[in-house]
Each structure stands twice: as C-alpha cells, then as structure tokens.
Amino acid sequence: MPRFVAASLAALGLLSATAVTQASAASPTAHDSIVRGRPAAIAAFPWLAHVDYSGEIDKFDCTGTVVAPRVVLTAGHCALTGTGHVAVAANYTVTTGVADLRDARGVNRSEVSQVLVFPKFEPSRVSYDASLLILKAPVAAPALALASPEDAALRAPGVPVSIAGWGLTSAEPPRETTVLHEADSEIKSDDFCHQQLRRILPIFSPASQLCIKSHPGPFFASLCHGDSGGPAFTRRPDGTPVQVGIISLGASNCGARHPQVLARVDRVSSWVREWIDAIEHGARRPRVVAPAVKLPSLERPVAEYVAYLGLAVEFGPKFTGGKQQKLDCDRHSRTRIKCQVEWVRGSEYYRGGTTVYTAVPREGSIYNLRLQVRRFTRRCWESHRATGRSCPAKTFRAKLP
Fold first, then answer.
1. What are the residues whose beta carbons fall under 8 Å from the beta carbon of 185, sequence distance 6 or more?
2. Backbone phi, psi, residue 252, to 5°
3. SS3 of 270, please?
4. CA 64, CA 311: separation in Å to the nearest integer?
5. What Cα–Cα distance (Å) separates residue 103 from each residue in 98, 107, 308, 358?
6. Which of 106, 224, 304, 354 is most deeply packed, by most CB within 10 A?
7. Which helix (H) or strand (E) holds 242?
8. φ, ψ at 181 (rounded to 5°)
C-alpha cells in the first residue's frame, strides 16, 4: 500500500495492499503477494498487470487489470503519491504477459501516458478506490469484462471469487516474490462485513465496497501489500470471467482473520467504459477530476521533532553534541509552528528560530522547515547580556528539505 494510506489506516488495524519500497518510510507499508496462495500461470490470468511506481521519493507496487488495449484498471490509492497528489505518469512501468516478473522483456513493459482517478474516490475513507492508467501503446493482453449495476447476482453473498496478484507471500517476516499468486475466496454479506470490521474499519460502506473471506483450510488465503488494485473475479453462467471487485484493503499483518475489502466494480464500470470509448474509439473524453489535496494539521510534538531533525541535519555534531539545548515552540496557525532554539557547543553559543510548516509538494515530505540561527562566542554573548554591547555573529539560514 502507499505510504499515505498506510499512515492513515494503521491505527485501524488495516492497510491498503500496496507494496512500498521506501527506505525513509517509518510506517509499515510493504506487503507480499497473496499469503498462502498458489503460484499461478499467466494463461489463467492473461489480463493481469503488474504496476511498478518508482519516483524520486515514492516507490510502490500494485496489481492491475487490462480492461482495454491501452487501459489498465487499478486501485485509486495506487494512483496517488504519499502527499496525495495524482502520481506522475512517467514514473510507472506496467508489465503484462508474464507470471514471473523475471521473465519480462521489453515487449512486456509499457509506459503510462496519463493517470486518472475515479472522481468519487475519497482517500481518507478509501471509498470508490479505483483509478485508470492509460498506456502509451496497446498491449496484447486480453481485456477482462467488468461487472455492471445489472450484475447484482455476481456480487451476492456466497459467490466464489478468485483473487490474484504479486503482493507479499508473508508479512512477518516480509517475503517478496516475483511470481504471480492466486487464491480462492468468497463474497460475504454486508451484515457480515459490518460485524467483522466494525472495530477496525468503521468506515466500511456497502455503497462502494464489498468484502471477501477465504474458507479455513490449507489455503486460508489473505491479501497482502502489492495486491492492491488487482481483481476479484467470478464467472458468468457461460464461463466468462468478470471482475466484481478491486483489491483495496487487508489486515496490516496480512492475516486472514478479518475479511478483505474490495472496491465495487459495478460502481465504477460506466466511468471506465467512458474512458475506454475515448481512448480506444475517439469518443469525447470525460472531465478529469483529481482528489482534493488537503494540508494536514501540524501538531506540536511533530513540529519539535522536525525542528530537531532539521537542526541535526544542518549543524551535525555542533547541534547534537551541544549542551543546554532549548526548543520552545508556539503555534502560529493550524499548519505552522515557530520554535525558538538555543544551545552551547564549546566556546560557541547558538541562538535563533525555526518555522515548521506543512506543505504538499509533488512528491516527498509533507513537512518543511525554515531556520535562521546566529552563532556567537560565549564570552561575547555573556558580555552582551551584561552590558548590552553589540556582539558580532555569523548567521546561518536554511530551508529543508
């Protein structure tokens, strides 16, 4: 799951199933492929796509579904960076036509030209969790049919579904895989989902979500990081496979005790078809709607921590090895806190201030820092305090990151 989803849902005991490989991320964000699943052949899932995102800061993996030669359906949270912006199309690589990613060649890899997030997607609630990746060139993989609002029988309680993805095969310890895995599961009733998820996911909404759970047994499977965006599909009476869900959320430890949450495909399929008509057949393009990016509130402990780290980065041992450190912070607004800072290091005295504020860059940290610190000799500063005489100083200014 992406870092931003992991951070918002960790307290609820669920994490989105995206695999994040980001050394700087402190929160758990990487999942393997389906836990206790079975290795799968691409012939059984010819429309599956592996989605890799490698930005300068954000790095994650998802699974997707080919729904047209140039259109891949995946989860909405697989289309956003950690700061909530729509992800940069050029940072994606989509792989199709292979079950083992090590077998991929140039013909299997596709570049992305546009990232489209479902207009009703709410990142904070992970509802209507769907997005599209528009490829620069068509792929040979066939398209998977999508459930429509008329297909209520396909998402009824008790309907068996198949799930597949390249997520972690174990979360504790994390175990990555390059091989596609599959598992069997079953759609559960809304009442069952509410009952099972009420403590850890009180925001579960049948209007945009459904839940599945595998039967106990040797393959009591569950989803894990990296499976996000993949399909849950069943079959029509004539045997045609049809996607009914988009893998969205699973337990933070990838356990099978709780159900896994999917985005309902029938709620987004008409939007998907509009874009397929536009991309593949030249129809008028729908209006593009991006999720609103909201500045998070800044709390004082966070500001103090960011200020301390910023001073440590800028001054190194001259700060971390200093004595009589003081950091006094006051709120100036919901998103801005100013701190007065001073410390002593040997014969030098440092005094100044920092401003910590939330920001939403294209990618990267949501916390920025400005600082201005003046360095005096201790003897001169003590004389200044006693007599009021001016004291020469060297001024340091910095903006981080």
1. 160, 161, 162, 163, 212, 213, 214, 221, 232, 260
2. -60, -25
3. helix
4. 43
5. 7, 11, 47, 43
6. 224
7. strand 241-251
8. -125, 150
Residue 227 CA: distances (Å) to CA of 196, 251, 364: 21, 12, 23
Strand partners, 209: 263
The per-residue pLDDT for 37 is 58
CB count in 10 Å sphere of residue 238: 5
Q: Quick check: 317 pLDDT over 70?
A: yes
Q: What is the pLDDT of residue 4?
A: 27
User: What is the DSSP secondary-structure string of 308-328?
Assistant: HHHHHHHHTHHHHT-EEEEEE
Separation of alpha carbons 119 and 272, rounded Å: 11
CA dist 176 and 33 (Å) reads 7
For residue 131, what are the β-bridge partners? 74, 117
Tokens standing for residue 3: 């870092």
Half-sphere exposure of 28 (CA within 13 A, CB side): 21
For residue 397, count CB atoms less than 10 angstroms from its CB and return exposed for 0-12, middle for 13-18, buried for 19 or more: exposed
Cα separation of 170 and 341, whole Å? 45
| Closest to 162 (Cα-Cα) out of 111, 120, 212 | 212
Q: What residues contact residue 82 under an 8 Å CB cut-off, 6+ apart?
A: 2, 3, 4, 25, 57, 58, 363, 364, 366
Scan for tokens 């799968």, then name that residue: 40
Q: What is the C-alpha separation between 34 and 339, in angstroms, rounded? A: 47
What angle (nearest 5°) sits at the alpha carbon of residue 371, between those of residues 296 and 336? 25
Burial of 295 (0-12, 13-18, 19+ CB in 10 A): middle
Q: Which amino acid is at 299?
A: E
Q: Which residue has better confidence, 101 or 217?
A: 101
What per-residue confidence (pLDDT) applies to 126?
A: 86
304, containing H or E segment: helix 300-315
Helix (H) or strand (E) holding 276: helix 269-281
What tens digit of pLDDT does each residue of 329-377 get? 999 898 899 999 999 999 999 999 999 988 766 665 667 889 999 999 9
Spatial distance between the Cα atoms of 135 and 70, rounded to a whole number of angstroms: 5
Torsion from C-alpha of 389, 394, 395, 398, nearest 10 degrees: -160
Residues 6+ apart with CB under 8 A from 155: 147, 187, 210, 244, 245, 264, 266
Query: Is residue 96 a contact partner of residue 108, using CB atoms and an 8 Å limit?
Result: yes
